[in-house]
Design a protein that fits this description.
By secondary structure, the chain is an alpha/beta fold. Helices cover 35% and strands 18% of the residues. α10 packs parallel to α11. It binds phosphoenolpyruvate (PEP) and manganese (II) ion.
């Protein structure tokens, strides 16, 4: 349910509504807009009539049902677009967020070198995996804490904030110490205990779409994080599994406008995992910007032929640099900047 306060309702009346909601089995989430304060009361429907009766209070304008199953993620509850801030980078604002770097952190020299290169080309966030979700248990699994330390050193060397994947609720404290954005990978999009755990944190979460999750299921996963109190969720479309085998996944660019119509959360696109082949990455990256993505996540490797993971879909720094130059006029055409 949404409790819409009258414009200019005093703080005490907002506090009063919060207190009354807390007396029920519902949880209040206060959303302060420029004109009006709205309190989303989220619960399982058992005490719906108690929430409806709040409409009789003096400073309450209306009490409405939230029609979408995802409530805090829905455009119904939040005015405008959410902008997630990471140091001085804003994700969801006019400037595009460009996250670039290798699939896996492989060594100190590798990650610092790539970080310098991508920064030079205009990336504003460094990506790199230290815990890798691999299909085979015999494939490289990531450097774990050593890799996190290398990422932190690359941040120190370049000033770029970092995004890295967290796979296990047991590793939340460890990854939290090092990273600026925590990535929940495609395979963990419905790992609800992990989602609840990162929902308790005060760091932004990059939530990838699963290989076979619908847009609404993906938004329900975002809801798990929001419901725990963490409002800094960035969605990432990274391709879904279809009958097509010419590409690793089918990059669903329609997810950008569709999800944007339903949610206020920012959305970035990962054309590297979306296509699986470096040859197609640039075309899809440009298309993603054109359809309104708030940013990109792109795998870049200095020696893709010997990369520990995902070399086939990684751009060399030179190609990434060319892509950034090609993106600039497209960004401008859709009212964005690099
Ligand atoms: C990654 O970003 O390296 C990764 C494993 O992504 P995804 O979860 O989208 O497969
Ligand atoms: Mn990868």
């Amino acid at each position: 349910m949404i409790v819409v306060m009258k414009p200019g309702a005093p703080e005490e009346s907002v506090e009063e509504v919060i207190r009354l909601i807390k007396e029920t089995s519902y949880q209040p989430h206060v959303l302060r807009g420029a004109l009006q304060t709205v309190i989303a009361a989220v619960g399982d429907g058992r005490e719906k009539s108690r929430i409806e009766s709040l409409e009789s209070l003096n400073y309450v304008e209306r009490v409405l049902p939230i029609l979408k199953p995802f409530k805090l993620a829905s455009r119904e509850t939040v005015e405008g677009d959410t902008i997630v801030k990471v140091n001085d980078v804003e994700i969801g604002g006019k400037r595009l967020a460009i996250m670039a770097g290798p699939c896996s952190v492989e060594g100190m020299e590798q990650i610092i070198g790539i970080a310098r290169d991508v920064k030079q080309s205009g990336a504003n966030i460094l990506r790199g995996g230290a815990f890798k979700p691999r299909t085979s248990p015999y494939s490289f699994q990531g450097l774990a804490e050593e890799g996190l330390k290398m990422l932190a050193a690359a941040r120190e060397a370049t000033g770029l904030p970092i995004v890295t994947e967290i796979m296990n609720p047991r590793e939340v404290d460890l990854v939290y110490q090092y990273t600026d954005i925590m990535q929940i990978g495609a395979r963990n999009v419905q790992n609800f205990s992990l989602l609840k755990e990162v929902g308790k944190l005060d760091k932004p979460i990059l939530l990838k779409r699963g290989l076979s999750t619908t847009i609404d299921e993906w938004l329900m996963s975002a809801e798990y994080i929001l419901a725990e109190g963490n409002r800094n969720v960035i969605l990432c479309e990274r391709g879904i599994r279809t009958f097509e085998t010419a590409t690793r996944n089918t990059l669903d660019l329609s997810a950008v406008p569709v999800a944007k119509a339903r949610t206020h959360l920012p959305i970035v696109v990962d054309p590297s995992h979306g296509t699986g082949y470096w040859q197609y990455v640039s075309a899809l990256a440009k298309a993603a910007v054109a359809v309104g993505a708030d940013g990109l996540m792109i795998e870049v490797h200095n020696k893709p032929e010997i990369a520990f993971s995902d070399g086939a879909q990684s751009l060399k720094p030179k190609k990434f640099d060319i892509l950034m130059k090609e993106i600039a006029p497209i960004a401008e055409a859709v009212g964005r900047t690099l």
